[in-house]
C-alpha cells in the first residue's frame, strides 16, 4: 500500500478512497473468524458496465485487485446472487466446477467449496463476497453466518461502485487514470 496526497490508498495498482481497503480487510478477518476461509475476494457489481470488479483479495498474485469478470457466468448464478440477492452455497468441487471457469486454480489453492453472499444496500446489490475453503467445509449455517457479515462491506463497496460504474469515457481508470 502506498498512501497518497489525495487521500487514497494504492493496492494492486488500483487507487481506493482512504479507508476502503481497511474495511475490506476487516470484513475478511471477520469472515475468517466466523466461517473460515482459504480464498476470499470482494467483487463490486458495476451494472452500467455489466461486470464484476475485484475490489479485494486474499490472494493478490492469483486474483489481483482490479481484475474484472464479464457477467457470462454459470446459468442462474447472476440471477440468484446479483439480481435475486440470495446467497449461493457450492459445498463440493462439482459445484465449484459448475460455477467457476478457473476451477483448476481454485482447486490448486485447496478450495473445493464456495459461499457467494450478495452485499445489498437499500435494495441495491453492490457486490458479492466470495468465500472459499476445502470441500465440505461449508453448510447452511456457514452461509447464514457469512450473510450476517455482508453488511459490513456496504460503505466500502458503495465507494468503489460510485467511482467505477461509469462508461469508459467518463472514468479515468478505464484509460489508465488514477481510479
Number of domains: 1
Q: How large is the count of helical segments?
A: 6
Report the end-to-end length measured between terminal Cα atoms.
15 Å
Strand content: 25-35%
The level 1 CATH classification is: Alpha Beta
- Per CATH, the superfamily is GAF domain
General shape: globular
**Element string (H = helix, E = strand):** EEEHEEEHEHHEEHH
Helix content: 25-40%
Structural class: alpha+beta
Give the radius of gyration. Answer: 15 Å
Low-confidence blocks of residues: 1-13, 168-179
Total number of strands:
9
CATH topology, anyone?
Answer: Beta-Lactamase
Do you know the CATH architecture?
2-Layer Sandwich
Summarize the main sheet. 6 strands, antiparallel
Please give the order of strands in the largest beta sheet: 6-5-4-9-8-7
Mean pLDDT: 85
Pfam families: GAF_2
Protein name: GAF domain-containing protein
In short:
The protein has helices spanning 20-34, 77-83, 93-99, 103-108, 140-149, 154-164, and strands spanning 2-3, 8-11, 14-17, 39-46, 51-57, 68-70, 88-90, 113-121, 124-133. With 179 residues, the protein is an alpha+beta fold. The strands form 2 sheets. It has a 6-stranded antiparallel beta sheet with strand order 6-5-4-9-8-7, sandwiched between helices. A 3-stranded antiparallel beta sheet has the order 1-2-3, with no helix packed on it.
Amino acid at each position: 500500500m502506498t498512501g497518497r496526497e489525495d487521500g487514497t490508498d494504492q493496492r494492486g495498482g488500483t487507487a481506493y478512497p482512504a479507508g476502503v481497503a481497511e474495511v475490506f480487510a476487516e470484513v475478511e478477518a471477520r469472515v475468517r473468524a466466523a466461517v473460515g476461509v482459504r480464498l476470499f475476494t470482494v467483487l463490486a457489481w458495476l451494472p452500467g458496465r455489466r461486470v464484476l470488479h475485484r475490489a479485494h483479495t486474499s490472494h493478490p498474485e492469483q486474483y489481483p485487485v482490479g481484475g474484472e469478470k464479464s457477467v457470462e457466468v454459470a446459468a442462474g448464478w447472476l440471477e440468484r446472487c446479483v439480481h435475486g440477492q440470495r446467497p449461493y452455497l457450492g459445498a463440493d468441487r462439482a459445484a465449484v466446477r459448475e460455477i467457476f471457469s478457473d476451477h483448476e486454480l481454485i482447486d490448486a489453492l485447496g478450495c473445493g467449496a464456495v459461499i457467494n453472499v450478495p452485499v445489498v444496500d437499500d435494495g441495491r446489490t453492490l457486490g458479492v463476497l466470495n468465500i472459499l475453503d476445502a470441500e465440505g467445509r461449508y453448510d447452511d449455517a456457514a452461509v447464514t453466518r457469512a450473510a450476517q457479515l455482508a453488511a459490513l462491506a456496504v460503505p466500502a463497496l458503495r465507494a468503489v461502485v460510485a467511482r467505477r460504474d461509469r462508461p469508459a469515457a467518463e472514468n479515468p481508470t478505464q484509460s489508465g487514470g488514477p481510479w
